[in-house]
UniProtKB/TrEMBL annotation:
PROSITE patterns: AA_TRNA_LIGASE_I. InterPro entries: aa-tRNA-synth_I_CS, aa-tRNA-synth_Ia, Anticodon_Ile_BEm, Ile-tRNA-ligase, Ile-tRNA_ligase, M/V/L/I-tRNA-synth_anticd-bd, Rossmann-like_a/b/a_fold, tRNAsynth_Ia_anticodon-bd. Residues 704-854 form the Methionyl/Valyl/Leucyl/Isoleucyl-tRNA synthetase anticodon-binding domain. It catalyses: tRNA(Ile) + L-isoleucine + ATP = L-isoleucyl-tRNA(Ile) + AMP + diphosphate. It is found in: Mitochondrion. This is Isoleucine--tRNA ligase, mitochondrial. Its EC number is 6.1.1.5. One of its GO terms (molecular function) is tRNA binding. It comes from Amylocarpus encephaloides. NCBIfam families: ileS. It is an enzyme of class 6 (ligase). One of its GO terms (cellular component) is mitochondrion. Keywords: Aminoacyl-tRNA synthetase, ATP-binding, Ligase, Nucleotide-binding, Protein biosynthesis. Its main location: mitochondrion.
Length: 953
């Protein structure tokens, strides 16, 4: 067989050819983005229209500021879920929304007009604030929408809603009306969280806790002026008895109305000079000033009830105040006697309300004392900030009544917007009665799927701990509480009055609530007699977003937000839905929560720390060092891989925990994405039409089997919202099964043989698995597919097909169990062969793996597997030949290296592979050592002859 003359044998090879670029071309990205987002959403809205819709309801991002990495985590997770459902044949309904009201936007509006919301000297009227705030929100919504689209988030953008839309506000007011009709809305003077820096009441969800807040704590003695009969019976006449309290907020002492003890606790009466002091037995040693004094008696808390004490801060003519019982008094802190200021404490308020004790709070909106703080000499406290010099001034006024002060570091609630401390302050506010609906709300969660499951306990604990929800805010930018007020301050809130106000807003617009004259009769429902003015309170923004379930026609399949929303949007949505809808089910079927984003050191990202990463930095590759090229004129190659780089980071993260983003993580994902592109380019360049008619080899069957397994694993992960497991499975398959095994083994057949194989199956399967994760890459790959793939017009886009559909799997006839055994055999032998080859390379006996042959020393139980694979083992191991050797004998060869393979079963023997020199010469075309000297191998000779005949025709 003489060698046929050829200028170069490489010209006879079928090398991969594809127009697919190694990196995304910026000029093409817009069209791919359009196809995989807007076009796909419109198609799926139209084509599977008969299917029951899958509704993912958007937890509205706040229309304030630029997008950050947390937004990317949230929005891309939602998009992945929607794309998975589209692949499954569902019609997805995903309408984005924005939360537009609230204080941060109002403050920006004030700042923009060079007005201060804090100093009270320059303020805009409500309409001016609302106009500027609305413009700011509109601009932010458009900017954020643009960013979301750049991340390849597909949605019904044209019908996106905003909480400041008139239709949304009307529906929100109707929810309020329904709750009021059911008696769940009321007004009360009671303590709420108040932010002096924002001058408004706050919800618990608007607080963040500073673990390092430092207060001036004090031990204070109050003289007991009326001693109870029980106490006198036990200890006789006590001339100068004092109750000792401990407080971390001395500024609340002007509002003190009672001292609480616990009936069952034991208290000591301590004598010091001519004075006596009451302290809990267990706390005596903690008060150094009294720890070594004489104990003259012990009593129970119940013996103290009926005693009264005098608080000089209430004024010289004020009445003595009572000592009462409270369950919250403990023996593990303070003095065992608790100062009660019902105007400044939630627990204090509840216990005092039952006893008819008034809640007073002599502190104004700015957190400064009023005249009532010290009635005898108002100037001593009036105007002083409770946080700056208020506590110090109170301590000074009490003088010798203060036994001791000390600095105390503790956890304290801060306004999450201004990052400044809050106070608890009794004011007139509107509340939603959560206590009457929370049991029903909790029961409705029984059938809800929580991801992770720990979210169930977290949400239920928040619901269980609530009784009343303060829903009113003292701001201009928001939806008004639809209440009217009489001249004496009494509020009117009837079904008829609310309905009339809603109708008037429908006619005049919501701004008219602030624009019209305060007593404009147009707002007064027919039948109401007298003069009324409209209130100025607006609704809590959590009530705004919490009523967004009105935007969906049915129960949402998924709510997905950060874990902080258990105390925020998840909770407000559930409570308003339970209160107003009349349905026994919650607004969601599945509740998915994700963690926060952390830097590489595990620290929470913060602008103040300077450790934030912008989504754009991941997309443009600027966080990674540029690739240096040998061609200096071209300069370094950009690392930009676009939205897919950002999306792959999201998809590869276990979002149920806090998520780390940093150079190490991004480098790994970047490498994976480049690996995808290299693999896709190889597949696109090697797929040939004739492969559809080519017989399935055992290698092909194994490849399709491995593909089917990974697709099953990926589908299961996607269906269970475990996207990171799906990405891990894809990466493992690409690196091990596809690149290192199948494509490596297939190169000879692709370049030098019949170019058959299962590449089309692999390409389509790969695209389907990547479609929810990296849609731009899939769209780009699909655009570069060979023309013959679309010639019959029956090709369906991978993003529109179920993941598990394969093209040629019916051509595989081998039993799955046999394939599993074959794969195990090939894997064991392949690893052993590589180990033996490395020894040969170490002695410079071989370079390429084709420069050797393999002999197998097999036990009898493996001979059947060997026989079934014998014709293809050399291809699978990428060697020039594979044969058997007599058991327990060394082959005769110029050199030989062996590796022993231990058995997987205790009763089965181990076996061995030998790497030896090949018997034949190197084929100059395919480089396998299977040819006579200076001649082509038989396979290459046949292929070249066939090609020559085809060219001549």
């Amino acid at each position: 067989m003489p060698v046929r003359p050829a200028v170069s044998w490489s010209s006879t090879l079928r090398l991969p050819k594809s127009s697919f670029p190694p990196r995304p071309l910026q000029a093409d990205q817009a069209k791919y983005l359009q196809r995989c987002t807007d076009d796909l959403y419109r198609w799926q809205s139209r084509e599977p229209s008969a299917q029951k819709p899958f509704v993912l309801h958007d937890g509205p991002p706040y229309a304030n500021g630029s997008l950050h990495i947390g937004h990317a985590l949230n929005k891309i997770l939602k998009d992945i879920i929607c794309r998975v459902k589209v692949q499954g044949g569902r019609r997805v309904v995903y309408v984005p929304g924005w939360d537009c009201h609230g204080l941060p936007i109002e403050i920006k509006a004030l700042e923009k007009q060079h007005a201060s919301a804090i100093d009270g000297e320059r303020t805009l009227d409500a309409i001016a604030v609302r106009n500027v705030a609305r413009e700011l929100a509109i601009t932010t919504v458009e900017d954020q929408k643009k960013g979301f689209k750049e991340w390849a988030v597909m949605a019904d953008w044209e019908n996106a809603w905003k909480t400041m839309d008139k239709t949304f506000e009307i529906k929100q007011l109707q929810v309020f009306q329904e709750m009021a009709k059911r008696g769940l809305i009321f007004r009360r003077h009671k303590p709420v969280y108040w932010s002096p820096s924002s001058r408004t009441a706050l919800a618990e969800a608007e607080l963040e806790y500073n673990e390092d807040h430092v207060s001036t704590a004090a031990y204070v003695k109050f003289p007991i002026v009326n001693v109870s009969d029980a106490l006198q019976e036990k200890l006789g006449k006590l001339q100068n008895l004092h109750a000792i309290i401990w407080t971390t907020t001395p500024w609340t002492l002007p509002a003190n109305q009672a001292i609480a003890v616990h009936d069952d606790m034991e208290y000591s009466v301590i004598e010091s000079g001519s004075d006596q002091y009451l302290v809990a037995n267990t706390r005596l040693e903690h008060i150094k000033e009294l720890s070594e004094k004489k104990i003259i008696g012990t009593v129970h808390g119940r013996d103290l009830k009926g005693s009264k004490y005098f608080n000089m801060l209430r004024g010289e003519t004020s009445a003595p105040q009572p000592i009462i019982h409270a369950d919250f008094v403990t023996s593990t802190s303070g003095s065992g006697l608790v100062h009660c200021a019902p105007g400044h404490g939630m627990d204090d308020y509840e216990v005092c309300k039952r006893l008819g004790i008034e809640a007073i709070a002599p502190v104004d909106d700015l957190g400064c004392f009023t005249d009532a703080a010290f009635p005898d000499r108002p100037e001593k406290l009036k105007g002083k900030s409770v946080f700056k010099d208020g506590s110090k001034a109170v301590v000074a006024l009490l003088g010798e009544q203060v036994l001791a002060t000390h600095r105390y570091k503790h956890k304290y609630p801060y306004d999450w917007r201004t990052k400044l401390p809050t106070i608890v302050r009794a004011t007139e506010q509107w509340f939603a009665d959560v206590g009457n609906v929370k049991d029903q709300a909790q029961k409705s969660l029984a059938d809800v799927q929580f991801i992770p499951e720990a979210g169930r306990t977290r949400l239920e604990s928040f619901i269980k701990g609530r009784s009343e929800w303060c829903i009113s805010r003292q701001r201009s930018w928001g939806v008004p509480i639809p209440a009217l007020y009489k001249a004496n301050g009494d509020a009117v809130l009837t079904d008829e009055s609310i309905a009339h106000i809603i109708a008037t807003i429908g006619d005049r617009g919501i701004d008219a609530w602030w624009m019209d004259a305060p007593n404009d009769p147009a707002w007064i429902a027919p039948g109401l007699q007298g003069t009324y003015i409209r209130g100025k309170d607006t609704m809590d923004v959590w009530f705004d977003s919490g009523t967004s379930w009105t935007q969906t026609k049915e129960q949402a399949d998924v709510y997905l937000e950060g874990s902080d929303q258990h105390r925020g949007w998840f909770q407000s949505s559930l409570l308003t839905h339970t209160s107003a809808s009349g349905n026994e089910y919650p607004p969601f079927k599945t509740l998915v929560t994700h963690g926060f984003t952390l830097d590489q050191q595990g620290k929470k990202m913060s602008k103040s720390i300077g450790n934030t990463i912008a989504p754009s930095q991941i997309m443009d590759g600027s966080l990674l060092p540029p690739i240096k090229t040998k061609k200096k004129a071209k300069g370094p190659v950009s690392q930009a891989l676009g939205a897919d780089a950002l999306r792959l980071w999201v998809a590869s993260s276990d979002y149920t925990k806090d998520v780390v983003v940093g150079e190490t993580v991004l480098k790994f994902n970047h490498s994976s994405l480049l690996k995808y592109r290299i693999t896709i380019k190889m597949l696109l360049g090697s797929m040939h039409e004739g492969a559809r008619k080519s017989p399935m080899t055992k290698l092909d069957e194994i490849a399709v089997f491995q593909l089917s397994k990974v697709m099953t694993e990926v589908k299961s992960a996607y269906d269970n919202f475990e996207f990171y497991k799906g990405v891990n499975a894809i990466n493992r398959w690409v690196n091990t099964d596809l690149s290192a095994f199948y494509l490596e083994a297939m190169k000879d057949r692709l370049y030098c043989g019949d170019s058959g194989g299962a590449l089309e199956d692999i390409f389509l399967g790969f695209m389907k698995m990547l479609a929810p994760i990296t849609p731009n890459l899939v769209e780009e790959s699909w655009a570069h597919r060979p023309e013959w793939m679309d010639r019959d017009g029956q090709q369906v886009h991978p993003a529109r097909q179920p993941i598990l559909d394969l093209v040629s799997s019916p051509r595989s006839t081998t039993d799955a169990r046999k394939l599993e055994k074959a794969i195990s055999f090939i894997t064991d032998a392949g690893s052993a062969i590589k180990a033996a080859q490395e020894e040969a390379r170490g002695q410079k006996l071989i370079g390429s793996s084709l420069e050797c042959s393999v002999l197998l020393d097999l036990p009898l139980e493996l001979h059947e597997i060997y026989t079934g694979l014998a014709d293809e083992l050399a291809t699978m191991f990428v060697v020039s030949g594979v044969g058997l050797v007599e058991p327990n004998t060394e082959p005769e060869a110029e050199w030989r290296f062996s590796t022993e393979i231990p058995s997987h079963h205790p009763d089965a023997p181990s076996w061995k592979v030998w790497v030896v020199p090949p018997k034949d010469a190197k084929c100059p075309r395919c480089w396998r050592f299977v040819a006579p000297v200076d001649k082509l191998c038989q396979r290459c000779d046949d292929v070249v002859a066939i090609n020559a005949r085809e060219e001549s025709v």
